[in-house]
Design goal:
The complex is a heterodimer. By secondary structure, chain A is mainly alpha-helical. Chain A contains 6 helices and 5 strands. Chain B is of the alpha+beta class. Chain B starts with a helix and ends with a helix. The chains are: A mainly alpha, B alpha+beta. Iron/sulfur cluster (SF4) binds next to helix 2 and helix 4 of chain A.
Chain lengths: 219, 583
Amino acid sequence: MTDNAIPNINTPGYDVPAEMQGQVAVTSMDRLLKLLDPAYNWGRRNSIWPMMFGLACCAIEMICTAASRYDLARFGMEVMRASPRQSDMMIVSGTVTKKMVPQIVRLYNQMPEPKYVIAMGACASGGGPFKEGYNVVSGIDRYVPVDVYIPGCPPTPQALLHGLMKLQEKIDSQSITRERWYDSDVPADAIPVPVLGPDLMDPRDFKKMKQLAKQGAKA
Amino acid sequence: MTEMTAERKLSALEERFPGKVSPDARPGYEGFTVAPKDLLEVATALRDELGYDYLSSVTAVDYPEENVFEVVYHFYKSTGGRALVLSAQTPRNKASLPSLTPLYPAADFQEREAWDLMGVKFEGHPDLRRILMWEGFDGFPLRKDWKEAYYEEEHKPFAARWPEGAVRRSEDLNAFSGNVAYSKEFMAQPDKYEEEAEPLLYAKLNEEAEKMGRNFETDFVTVNMGPQHPSTHGVFRMAVMLDGETIVALKPVMGYLHRNHEKIGERNTYLHNMPFTDRLDYLSSMSNNWGYALAVEKLMGNRVSVPERAEYIRVIMAELTRISNHLWAIGFLLNDLGAFFTPSLYAIEERELILDIFEATTGSRMMCNYFRFGGVARDFPEDSWNKLKDLVNERLPRRIDELDVYLTNNEIVGSRTTGVGVLTPEEAIAYGMAGPVLRASGVPYDVRRADPYGIYESFDFDVAVRYHGDCYDRYIIRMDELRQSLKILQQAVKRIPAGSVLDKNPYNVRVPAGESYGRVEGPKGELGFYIVSDGSANPHRYHVRAPSFINLTALEKMCVGQKVADVVVILGSIDIVLGEVDR
Ligand code: SF4
């Protein structure tokens, strides 16, 4: 290998430690990422650990998806973890009630990054058949960010598998340079946990509440 | 015949309490009314003298016009027979009745539910806390004058969507674009609100633990299992007080899946509710459909009749449901025992075959929405007959034997379940247990035999019963019931006649005013639907007597004194589904 082929192999513009010289060649970050991202994402997409977390009817179909006939293991996702600390993905599988929301947000906050949320079924996506009920929240995306929505009531196992493949596609498109969680300078803020008072309260709404009360008082 | 016995009982009760008990005079009502002050006395006599030892359902009804709440009790004899319905009224502004919990522990959770959702106080109840909503929630949601945040109109179909079908998002009507509403005073200073860490729950837990006394000079430890816990089969929570590893007190906490089934049901039209019943016990939607259809058909009386072929299809579907449910229950009980997923994978494999039949018949694997008032929605598909016959005659019997061989004499199953969570027959009846839990305690009570519905009388099958009342018996009785269901299915597929499957137009039903209680033997026990109709297109009151919910009443009884690891097994052996517990 002559110096002409790769002119700056040992002078990339930053210090290369002596023992590494001639061993590692970083000619361009882009090219490195082209190699690194797919390999890294390939590993991640095929070993997602879902949280063992079922809310309602949809959870039954989720279990069926993991079971004999549909076999989630083909996607490397069969390792369901009961602890949020060990899981990468939360499948919100069922009706989100006001009484349960604080717990779900807490669980989400406890999951390590990078984490993904799938809203499975009509209820988790937007309230579903029980939307108008006094204890039902119109979809989990009011509280935690959702990556994939799966329609259905309940979505069939095939639909859930399709949703999981969509999530894999999303993972494929990610790059370690762009995602927030690799950047140690950006703090990952926890989502404020909703409070159960006279009704479900989102601490982020407090300002608006006071404002509305003032308007009401004036009117 | 049954009419005559009812007549005799009527006089027996009235003779015993002249002037205190009177037949309900309103048209369409079948029970007796009693004044609140005599309620305890009458209930005691019912239990001790007249043999009505099984209190099945307690619920409250709001009558805003008369300005009263009425609490309705359904009593049965544990030896079988028809219901005795008793009702007591209390004024709306000072709603209070004596509690029946000291007499019938089965009333415990149901009275708490009536307090929680309707705001009726029960004097003498040992632990009257909210049960489905949280402590501090604003209002009693099932009262007719209570409106939810997304309230549009009293009854569906809403004028905004019908007949033009305009699409409207409820969020857009709400200031917080969410399903929430606060009072004005509260909104002025929301951050003054202090969240309390469930003081009532822990106070009660402490109180019961102190009563039990201590073994060691150590502190009791409070452990919360759930609502996110792999062993609770959903979002159920138990607050457990431990002395070392021994349980001294346990309080179930539920409502994490309370989806307001009843409030929504009272806004819906009658047929509208059918798909909602699917989502009660979502493992056995067909049985739920049947219970609801039965209650409405009973109200409609001779305006509707079910063709014979439809009766057969109903039996086939209900028994298939029972099989798929019990397979699931056994599989997940083994899961709870630590046989992680292997037995349940075998069970789910068979269940999938049953779901295939459901899907071919109804179009959906789980949410079948198949029953109609006066029959079923469509005929059984021709090309699935062979599959069904093969399943009930060949494959399932073989597979159930296989499960039996592997599990029943398994040493770990035996030692983890034998003698654990024992419930005596007397306790089982007093706590209002139903289904396999009741029968495993030695009470041969099965609604299919005790108070037959549909065409069950024409089938040859045994009521499975076991006598130890422990977790092992609750496991083995499900094996027995699987075999009995197969026996019914084998007869049904052989004998099913040709013909139509639906009485005339099932849509737009006219339901006369009155009350009715339809109950079926669901896979988890007696599933009852209590409906009060005022003659309009929507039910005035719609209440579900959910077996999973009431079976939990005895959970503390079964668990106290056991080790904490046994709680998981005991809960698994009761076989609850949260959709039905919380509704
Ligand atoms: S979307 Fe349907 S099946 Fe899923 S939880 Fe909601 S009601 Fe149940």
